[in-house]
Amino acid sequence: MAEAGRDDGGPGVIRSAFELLELLRVLGRARLADLTRESGLPRTTVHRLMGQLADVGAVERIDAHYRLGPNLLTLGQHVTPLERLRAVAQRPLIELAAATPAHVGLLAMAATGPIYLDVFVGRGRLPFRRQPGEPAPSGSAGARLLQSGGPALAIDDGSAIDGVSCAAHALPLPGGDVACVGMAVPLPRLPRALLAPLQATTSRIATLLAAHPAEPM
């Protein structure tokens, strides 16, 4: 039998799957028991749906925990300008990560909030590793910049994540939207000498975007 109309292979099961994805967005990482409790769905349904979502790359399983998978970002690229932005920004971001000790990221606003579009690992060891498609941490420089729409530069000296400092520079996009280039280092205070290459990289990406406008649909 279908479970209260929510697991019938039609709109009910699709709605349940999206509820689980939204829970993962809010929780970041969650165990099967957490998702069962928060969703109110039967454990067998949650287990099966998470397995199916993992099979298509919408979620990833790490030990006993689940989190959103990067394949969600891949789908989004084909209905938004994000694919072109990532393609244009990739080389400047790689070069910034190679020229500095910082971990470098490209961030933009999604319907659910600020997310990472791309991440390039630097030389310093961070207590975490971000993945494309993950939400930006609340209070981080990138999240604050994108959510406030204020100054072009935001800096966080270890208040969002203990022992990690970060900065983000706004990247205006054609059409009036804004993304940002961010960097993070495993230090309680961001070395201000890193701000010049951060700004230069952001300006370079903006110039490339302007020089290569999107083709009309």
Automatic annotation (TrEMBL):
Residues 14-70 form the HTH iclR-type domain. It comes from the Bacteria. InterPro entries: HTH_MetabolicPath_Reg (IPR050707), Tscrpt_reg_IclR_N (IPR005471), WH-like_DNA-bd_sf (IPR036388), WH_DNA-bd_sf (IPR036390). It comes from Pseudonocardia yunnanensis. This is Helix-turn-helix domain-containing protein. Gene3D superfamilies: Winged helix-like DNA-binding domain superfamily/Winged helix DNA-binding domain.
